[in-house]
## 1
Amino acid sequence: MSGPCVIGVLVSGSGTNLENIALRVEEGFIPGRIAIVISDVEEAYGLVRARRMGLEAVFIDPRSFPDRSSYDRELIRMLAERGVDLVVLAGYMKLVGPEFVSAFRERIMNIHPALLPSFPGTSGVADALAYGVKVTGVTVHFVDEGLDTGPIILQEAVPVLPGDDEETLHQRIHEVEYRLYPEAIRAFCEGRLRIVGRRVEILE
Ligand code: GRF
């Protein structure tokens, strides 16, 4: 990577992680810039947050494409046009397809609200709660072709407390996410992440 790290963010929902990452970029903690925010959901509040922070934010409607791969190709085109080095999935609820993964191989990150490989998928918090685990957590990982299966960059445990419901538990998980995701993105942008098989080495 030459020059500052160019970041593209994909969201589907509230976008609190996106906003937090954008703040860490503004502060200089992450040495890069966010070139574009894309949502597959028109009313995603993440788009509002992005525009409020002066970022280019666009809704691309999956229904105007015949299939996932043509949708993904449009996203690839928009991201590549802006010279994006790193794609950050921040509550993006659509599974990215194989073409997307190979266009940005080892350059797509996701954050998951559980300790993978436990509780993958879209309801990691509810599933952990329903299972009755005492400890869950947060995982930041690279994205590969599988569902939440890519090499793990950072993980941190979050205890499940007596009386927790999905909302209280997700709130504490979010607090950890706001710390972990910027750290992982910063390490990527500083060229300090090395993938060796399934393991990710974080260089000092
Ligand atoms: C986060 O909990 C993240 O782990 C999951 O989706 C949620 C997004 O929250 N992938 P927000 O939109 O950043 O508030």
## 2
Amino acid sequence: MCGIVGYCGKEPAAPIILEGLKCLEYRGYDSAGIASICDGEMLVKKDAGKIDEVERKQGIGCLPGNIAIGHTRWATHGAVTQANAHPHSDCHGRLAVVHNGIIENYQQLRQELIDRGHHFTSETDSEVIPHLIAEKMEGDSYSLEKAVLAVMPRLEGSYAFVTLAIDDPGKIVGARKNNPLVVGSGSHGNYIGSDALAFARHTRKAISLGDNEVVVMTPDKAEFFDAAGNAFSKQPRELDENWANNCKDGYEHFTLKEIMEQPCAIDRAALQDGKKFNSIALDILRAGQVVFTACGTSRYAALVGRYLFSRVGKKFSEVANASEFGYFVDSIDKNTVVIAVSQSGETADVIEGVWAARDVGAKIVSIINRPNSMLEELSHHTIYLKCGPEVGVAATKTFLSQVAVFYLLSFSLVNAFDEAVEHLGDMSGKVAEAIECNNSNLINLAQKLKDKNDFYYLGRGINFSIATEGALKLKEVAYVHAEGMPAGELKHGTLALIEQGTPVVVVCPDDYTYGETLSNAMEAKSRRAYIIGVSDRESDIFDFWVEVPRVDELLYPMVTIVPLQLLAYHMALARGYNPDKPRNLAKSVTVK
Ligand code: M6R
């Protein structure tokens, strides 16, 4: 949550920062701002609103200077106002800071600073940082980096921040604890960002800053220091070419582009190292217990994983909601394999649980999309989804890629990785078919249902996870209340909510759950629900049939989820919302 960008070099900095902020808008889009230094003056422009709006109102991209920092905000402390937007400054406007994270002891620090005569202009936790740094620079004549190092131990909570100061010009200093910060070095200068996506168009050489490390960036070099101020060197990693593509490629929205990319995403997810999968499979088979920890869509993908592990590998596992996982750490030990599933690799709830599990000796396997993440640093094994950046806040192609990875992993449990790769080889065509057959029908369905307030999604077995993920998509992008549940659960309470015309989406491909799921659908139909069947086999019960291609039972999730993503997308448009940037949400949730 919140995106940070910094640049110093030979080029005008603000346009580079603005472009970087747009690439990080997935991290938050409440407000934005840039600070630059030019001719010895600190210039700050910021406002509430999405980046384009702020640019229109304030012209942040026109600030002069070759050194600048910027921020796109997802509000935690303080309303969405111009005053609370970053960058924040000290009392005299001589330094500027952009921050991502939460300073948990900010109230105490703020009071101390007020008692010493500081004036605050925002309600944010972040503003204590520039005041603390300024005190060190003014009172103790510290350099910017020395002041940052002195302030870091005072900050409780999590942070990634970057700062620049007119009293120590020509450099940007960045620091990190439990929030990501990546440094990029290019021929025209140096870059820093919450994600390498912020500068991937300029350089693919990226270095992740570690916890409690500090970077000092000048136009020519980036130097790294540990918490004690000792310099050390770090080697850059080359970013995957795919990671630099951050355009809509002619689609109206990233969400649609990413849905359409799914046939290709399956092929990429299948490009895995069989030996690595076999070694992870051995760890899983030997483990006393296997627990998935994840949030949101990644958790629903983990439900598919749990099913596949049981059905293919005869290995029982459990799926924990990551924000609750920490409360069960008493039963985690060195015989536990924890599978952490996270597109971003930086979800705070996931990271915290993984820390706790590591502390008691559990083996950590992570399944991640974004490179250079904190989760990777904490893991014994990491599997990458390889599907490139997902910019739409609603996860789409990463869900399908996670499912593909679980398919490979479950077959690895029975030493059949190669067979699984072969099966996946046919799936990109099937997914493309699921898109082509349904897209225009779903536009009509969305028009018909756009004023409905409640949807219910049902499925059994492997299809239950698709019901839950389909419902989440609708909530997120179309702002319609939706519940996904095991089809058998409907009669235990929720049936009371079904009335004439209530849309009930029934995920019932022609597998061994078909008959029983239809019986549950019939219970809703008898109460005059409007039944939308997602299946390769038609039924009289359906009021609307979403036809999907016939595939093997274990691969149905890949073809059934796609029309549900499209339905949510078209519902969002029919209701007048931008599916790429749902209200109140951010793609990376780095706070607990
Ligand atoms: O990056 P992660 O996979 O850890 O994110 C987890 C959830 O925040 C995420 O899946 C969220 O639910 C999506 N916006 C769903 O579309």
## 3
Amino acid sequence: MTVRLGDVAPDFTAETTEGTINFHEWLGDSWGILFSHPKDFTPVCTTELGGFAARKGDFDKRNTKIIGLSVDTLDSHHQWKGDIEETQGTALNFPLIADENRTVADLYDMIHPNALETLTVRSVFIIGPDKKVKLTLTYPASTGRNVDEIVRVVDSLQLTANYSVATPVNWVDGGDVIVAPALSDEDATAKFPKGFTKLKNYLRITPQPNK
Ligand code: BEZ
């Protein structure tokens, strides 16, 4: 099944390293990140899982839960945890789904057979508190993800969900933002007391409104 932006994230119940989880119930009112890795006991995946675990505090601050997945068994996940802690210096501190029968992988189209025949690629789904998919990313097995980028995207999604703005190229939290094109200059003046700079009729820049 293809999961597209704006779709309700498919719900499921799965076995994880933190017990059985019903995805929508587990998400509750939080934002969520569901991400897959190809295989336990592989090098890039080991660094990624440690990398996500090291940033758990940053996701917590953003009211964002994270959950990983591969088609390995629960037993394999539990054995691998020790290697992650030993080599990456951070213990696994979020649930890992054991999707042996590929139920979740199929629901989210995480297996791309022309890239990796039977394993999940590095998919990322960011889900809003309304359970709708806000962002998807797909990386090949050979390229580890950048957790800074995923945190940055959460910041942009949360900001643009609450203010009539968009974030420009290479934006990071605290940087200037773009006034939503749908706003008139008059409405923008009312909404953004710090003012805005009009570079073009369609390109108006304002300081980040919640800073
Ligand atoms: C890795 O994590 O290094 C990896 C996993 C599956 C295929 C290739 C690389």
